[in-house]
Structure to design on (143 residues):
């Protein structure tokens, strides 16, 4: 009798854990899609801004609102609500793979989104991210 109760309680606990995990994984997938989408929008907006400003990207992402992007919510991670980090001072003359926007922390299952100068978006782990960011910083700039 006691064993049956213990087994029932354990089964119930397992069920509860499963139920708790299901919506979370659904949410994190949604947040990941949202962030990928945000980054894509920012990439397109930066390209448009540069086209109107002699190839130069804006001093900050806020300069994109409201002409190129509707609202500043686009600059916020859907998972953690942290604002994306912007690398100012780049132009369309910089190499395509230089990181322009990135998430300050790896919010998506130990990975973070980055936006490259050419508008491409990628989800990177810490090692890949540090490498890409450093490569962009080391790139010699035209005076
Ligand atoms: Zn995010």
């Amino acid at each position: 009798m006691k064993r049956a109760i213990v087994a029932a309680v354990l089964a119930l606990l397992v069920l509860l854990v499963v139920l708790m995990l299901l919506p979370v994984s659904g949410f994190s997938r949604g947040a990941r899609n949202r962030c990928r989408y945000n980054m894509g929008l920012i990439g397109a907006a930066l390209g448009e801004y540069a086209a109107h400003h002699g190839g130069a990207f804006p001093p900050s992402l806020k300069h994109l609102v409201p002409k190129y992007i509707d609202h500043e919510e686009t600059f916020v991670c859907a998972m953690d609500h942290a604002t994306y980090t912007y690398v100012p001072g780049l132009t369309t003359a910089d190499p395509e793979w230089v990181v322009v926007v990135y998430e300050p922390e790896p919010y998506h299952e130990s990975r973070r989104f980055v936006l490259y100068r050419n508008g491409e978006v990628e989800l990177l782990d810490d090692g890949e991210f540090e490498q890409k960011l450093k490569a962009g910083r080391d790139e010699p700039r035209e005076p």
User: Anything to note?
Assistant: The first strand starts at residue 85 and ends at 86. The chain has two helices and four strands. Residues 32 and 108 are 7 Å apart (CA to CA).
